[in-house]
Batch of 4 targets.
Target 1
Amino acid sequence: MREAPGQGPGDRPGEGPGSLPRLQRSGDATQLVVDGAPFLVRGGELGNSSAERAHLRSSWPKLEALGLNTVVAPVRWDLVEPVEGTFDWSSVDELVEDVQEHRMRLVVLWFGTWKNSMSCYAPDWVKSDVDRFPRCRTSTGEPLEMLTPFSTANRDADARVFAALMRHLREHDRRHTVVLVQVENEIGMIPEARDRSPEAEAAFTSSVPAELLAHVREHGGRLAPELAPAWEALASTGGGSWADALGEGPATDELFMAWHFARYVQAVVEAGKAELDLPMYTNAALVRPGALPGQYPSAGPLPHLVDVWRAGAPSLDFIAPDIYFPDFAGWAGRYARTGDPLFVPEALRSVDAAANALYAYGAHSAIGFSPFGIESIEGDAAELLAAANDVVRQLTPLMTAHAGDGRMTGLLPPADDMRTPHRVRVGEVVLDVTYERQSAPSLADGVINEAGDRSTDGRRLPAGAVVVRTGQDELVVGGIGVTITFSPTQLGQERVGILSCEEGRFDEDGAWRHLRWLNGDETHQGRHVRLPPGRMTVQRVRLYRYR
Ligand code: DGJ
């Protein structure tokens, strides 16, 4: 793998106490601000059992070579509170120290009550005391290894240790190595859509909470469209139970569970923020197409449930998707449309991660992207992710300056049923984009590769880019396997041609270093801009208008 790329703004924790990381609105976007400057998380999430010092030691050279500025890593309840009320922070301190030593930042994943629906990170004293810390149950009364969200004992135990963790970070991480905190991990009800423990059954037959009804009435037409019938029913209910208001069924069960999961998370977040007010989010396992609540980990922070989570957990800053499904753009878009900042704490570590990252930052001003199991990434996927991170690092000043101002976009091959070219507008210019996902035959220099996705050499390559409009007719484009032609936004307007195109890179000080002018075959004699397949490039393009 190539050498570690240089650092970007805010990448390394300073020596003295820094300012508290925070979220800040910028145009239509929300940015993460670290040490006073917008920060893009070039992250990698460690495997669940890979964050301990001795095990992680050998992975650091790889994490550095990947150009990460942030490690996303679990902090485990069972390790930090092995005995009730007695805390052992050694695993946290070692992680923070090691991250600092490698000049990165840390996203803490709080593996508390829930980890992928289950409660496997609850300490022994919680797991083995089922009377005090009750579990969810199935409709036939079977206990599940999932703490029920309907128990105040469960909730308070989690809130207490989480508050202690945040207090510990406040006192021992004065440089703010930790920039974000994920509260719990992939909460979700499975294999049935509703907890049937006695506590849950009592809540199900009691009235729909007034706070939820007030939120629905107040936010009217801005609520998630997927649940429009449920919002209507809730807005017009005269009171009564969940079943009275919404009828019986898996969709009602999911709404009900989402509310109670959110209330539980709210208590944990509130307790933690009272100690250290870092930005906090929670993540979701996504829904397989066609699956019903209960067939997937339901009631988690999914986009169709965002309003329930907002109303139930108002202290939570945002919800986040773990995107393993192939339709990366679709899921990223659904989360971005909620109005929350886009942060992808887990993504498939395939070759496509490199292109997906560029797309997320470009199309949605994402605050971060982080493939899962990062210490295990190999081969093309690793090479290309390192190259994408290098592009992101180079373009961070531009991308953060243009976050949410409508002058930036991301390019990713659209779903198969969409015809090429893919048309994308950036301000006053339309980009017609085609994608090449294979190495071009040598004779095809500058020509769009007609072979489409069929690989000639067995390698499947990613295609995607970020585009920033830096001036009236000036663009900076960074990515791979993308060919762009330009046109005006309306018929009859002057045509758009290429004045110049150059390849280069932005230095650590933000200065553009010219490498070469691209023309002739490289722009198909002035017809297009092409980021060749197989390697990441950054190009600066000047356009002009002609009749
Ligand atoms: C999603 C979870 O959030 C991760 O902790 C991990 O279990 C991955 N799935 C494994 O693919």
Target 2
Amino acid sequence: MKSISLIQFLIEERRAGRINAELSLLIEVVARACKRIAVATNKGALGGVLGEAGTGNIQGEAQKKLDVISNEILLEANAWGGQLAACASEEMEDPQPIPDMYPKGNHLLLFDPLDGSSNIDVNISVGTIFSILRCPDGVTEPKAEHFLQPGTTQLGAGYVVYGPATVLVLTFGHGTHEFTLDREVGSFILSRRDIRIPEETGEFAINMSNQRHWEAPMQRYIGELLAGKDGPRGRDFNMRWVASMVADVHRIITRGGVFFYPLDAKIKSKGGKLRLMYEANPMAMIIEQAGGAATTGRERIMGIQPSGLHQRVPVFLGSKKEVEVATHYHVEADAAV
Ligand code: AFP
């Protein structure tokens, strides 16, 4: 089969009228920046990139050196291109405007530059997650409130997983597609077009150590999976938990499955663990475009009107049937109160 590079794919999509030139260029710039992040990440201990940076981020989390390096790579790559009005990042409290010496564009880029960074020092896959919004008309100096758009308004979303292979998964509202980095050529090559996630699955991902803190409907749902074929579900289930959302989601994109980061008593006051704008929303778009579902356990993630740039939400995403069963248990429990 003739290999199709990311650039060829984007040109095809532009000719088909499914993407415009500015968005296409932006995706290429982000993909190129992620190749540089892959090089930095793959150096491991030899690159002096492991360990703590000695700084903290807006989330109050200690930053890894690669968190900072990845953030800088994405900011630098996107400064001069002319497609963006501003960037927002998990690593920065406020949006970063495009420097005045460069032309501005009509897009807003949000990213988690290195998701799963607590796994870096133990050489487990990590990734970059990004979301693309339109900058409101007439806004030349975007502030945080200009980013607060529901996930349904995303023009595009993607992630790159830095694993045994470096893989980009991308959507701009016309299906979800996968590109694998050909390191010898330095190009992302189309490896799966129009991915479909099976509606049924026998595999779930959750951090079981939080079980005693979960809400009752989550206890019920996971309890039924653990009961296996002798329980109400009548089948056995397998469990995985990488603790890198990008790696867990990529497994689901590849073979189906369902991922949960539910509310629990420890994080209830924060609203959840994962961030809406640059983790939950982009992953929700990717999953929905692949035929899956993504909710908070009570509502569709992409329907949420954001209230803050670093807002956190519970995340249930993946194979549609399991997301629907778990969500139904929560809605039913709320209605019974
Ligand atoms: P880090 O980026 O701090 O490693 O957090 C990763 C993450 O945001 C997401 O990628 C994982 O799914 C989730 O946190 C893992 O959370 P636990 O460490 O509580 O299992």
Target 3
Amino acid sequence: MGPEWSVDELLQAVIFGSPLALYVVDEAGLVQLWNPACEALFGWSAAEALGRRLPFVGPESVVEFDRLRRRVLAGKSVVNVQRQRRHRDGHSIELSISTVPLHDRNGAIRSVLGVSQDVSRQKAAEAALLREAHFDGLTGLLSRRRFVELLDRSLARRRCRDAVVYLDLDNFKDVNDTHGHGIGDQLLAQFAERLRAVVREGDAVARMGGDEFAVLLREVGPRTIHRVVRRIFDALVEAGPVVVGGREFVVRPSGGAALCRPTGSSQHVLRSADVAMYEAKRGGRGGFLVFDQLMQDAVVERVELEAQLGQAVDRQQFVVFYQPTFALVDGRLTGVEALIRWQHPDLGLLPPGRFIHLAEANGSIIEIGRWVLRQACAQLRVWQDTHPAASSLRMSVNLSPAQLRSTELTCDVSEALQRFGIEPRLLQLEVTETVLAADGASEALSQLRSLGVRLAIDDFGTGYSSLTSLRRFTFDTLKIDRSFVAGIDTSTEDRAIVVATLSLSHALGLQTVAEGVNTDGQRRFLSDLGCDEAQGFLLGRPGAAASIDALLEATEPLRFNELRRASIDAGTLRLGVSDAPLDDHTRCSTPSSVSPTRVRVPVRS
Ligand code: C2E
Ligand code: MG
Ligand code: MG
């Protein structure tokens, strides 16, 4: 049994029910078929369209339409072309059109079937997406993606005279935090406007995300890049505060610039500019820096060191130096501070300033810190076993913020104490003020305290802690930062700070240690004010454990009056030891105080 409908009927239903606009035109271009979807799409009824030229072909598309029709009449189907046509009321419609030749009974092509569909919405959505991908919604600047595309293009053309400037706003986070995102957004938009105004016509300006912006400078070259970037920064600064909602905001941009390299990728150039910006910020200079080879070397060194740090403990490349502290009242040796050094296979003995921050950043500080702790306790054990004078010697170990955040710290400390049989009161752990602001610091410190170890606040006066934190966390020792001690000889302000710190420290019942004592004047000043202890190059430099052995063997305490004579004898001693060359840190030194006759005070040669 065949179907109960005819093919003709089916075709009729398809043509008249279809949501696709279907029409047929003859060789002359006159409409022969016009379905209801055509009526809806173009606004012309079948009665109006039939027998006429296609009403939707506006004068602007007549030629193009005829070309299309002739191609189809020549026997080619054209599928899915996108064209603009006109609605009866004049607005234009984006169409997807397919055209197919129709044959008569003799096989000749006499007419053309058109199938059209409105894709205006889809097109608009695509355009919006493209806009979004290419432009930043808030500022109207280019998007990161578009910027990278342009940069790629510039690199592909080997335009080595082009350069990238990367910049961000130093104080933006504060504005956002204090005044809310609405104000923050307006500030960014205004800054973007300024940035666009200060660069040249052909330069591309993008917002890379957050408060980060980038400019692709065309044709600057190595000679003029500094001048061009300076001009941009000067103009941004000179523009003065940005006014948002009646309030003035000072915007401080920092930036870095890098030239495009013939061999570099866009990633590479952006990273270089970013590194330069980071260096500009790191130096606390604000402003901007242009990436150069030296910077590159420093970064490479940093990256390499960071990578090597992980294995340095296993490879036994670390050494602990010890620096003595003395009681100011009688010159007695009171303790030592463990100070790490890295015996690097290529670079020699590195001071902690070269690598501790890297170890902090990559997390290896936990393992390194544990190693120092054990090493220091083991050494104290050795001294206690071999020198009667070491029975009350205090061992100080520095803790970094990451260690304080780590859950293993208390465990590590108590394990080291037990393993080497160290009385907890002889171990002093030093933390800097900045650590105190961190979450969880309070808990970590009270856990340590419950073990019975001493806690010291290091580099006092340089961090951000408030005086309240001194009361909140119970410390045993306060170490006055050496920058203030250094100023005792020369600066009334520094002297005032030292005096105030000492009285604060005493009022709170803390043991006070002055760091970096390196002239006898400083020593006497501190001693007269009742400072308990001193540490510094004048009294003893950090050295290998053997240097402390010598001190422990000495039968007499350090004689300060002898020390003074020695420094006077040395004549030119007015200059501070802090002026000494860097490798002073790294040289294993003989203690300056083994006996009065061997006192050595550094002199600039
Ligand atoms: P710090 O704890 O304040 O240690 C004192 C620093 O001042 C030492 O530098 C010492 O050599 C230096 N110093 C002492 N007396 C004088 C002086 O009279 N003049 C001058 N110019 N400097 C003096 P060092 O050994 O380079 O250590 C620097 C910092 O590195 C330490 O400062 C400490 O914060 C950190 N550090 C050292 N060892 C470790 C460690 O094992 N772990 C952690 N987390 N940090 C450590
Ligand atoms: Mg310290
Ligand atoms: Mg210190």
Target 4
Amino acid sequence: MRFGGRVAAVTGAASGIGLGILRRFAREGARVAALDLDFEGAQAAAEELGGDGSAMALQLDVADGDSIQAAVDRILAAWGRIDVWVNNAGIFYVHNIADPPDMENWERILAVNLTGMFLCCQAVTRPMMERGSGSIVNISSIAGKMAFPEEAGYCGTKAGVLGLTRSLAVELAPHGVRVNAICPGNILTPMLQSVDARICAEEGWEPGTHLEKTAQEVPLGYIGQPEDVAAVVAFLASDDASYIVGQAINPDGGLVLY
Ligand code: NAD
């Protein structure tokens, strides 16, 4: 059990990749905190995993510093430590730059995907530094490394996650805290399914057609599952990765090779 006796907190844990990560840490022996805007979803996840009190659910909006601090305080009060913090909560939207400005969505994606991650790192850094150990894993995307049209907000924030990760990585490594990032490719979650639904509606295709076309572009030939990401997160958070700092690893079936 790589995480026996340890505590792992995951933002956006009610759905998709975050839920997969939460399940992975629980399976490997961690006490887990499911943190999400969707409290009912977080509660369902915690109930699934924590019949013995080894899982808790907390409502948190990563765009709200007070709710982040409250969540950190609650976890520390209950379990006395946070060994792993996974910044997974994220949102997506598309906007054609020639269309009228869409400042509401732009501000929200910055607040959730980038500022929220910064605030979470800030809140969890001190307790980790005080213990002289900890691992933070930030979920970026292949969109942080390559370009997609009409995704300036998403690509911009996901690239920002990589810069934030590298800076914090070298700042916190001397304190025993490792910070790394993950850049998933196409992973079957509600977020990707909503992209498929939108594009299929626009193109007049059967639902699922966009996913099939996308899979054909992946060198491995299929769409990934949350578990494919969770396995890499668990590795980076574990002692197996004790000499890995500031990296951005792509579980993407071979789409991006750097
Ligand atoms: P999802 O929509 O299935 O789940 C996202 C979760 O985050 C939801 O439970 C949602 O309630 C929560 N959330 C949203 N805003 C929040 C906020 N302000 N505070 C707290 N929680 C909030 O999405 P997913 O596909 O599982 O994506 C998870 C992460 O992985 C995101 O950061 C996303 O950008 C990234 N990602 C996804 C894919 C993919 O193909 N699915 C690919 C690359 C990166």
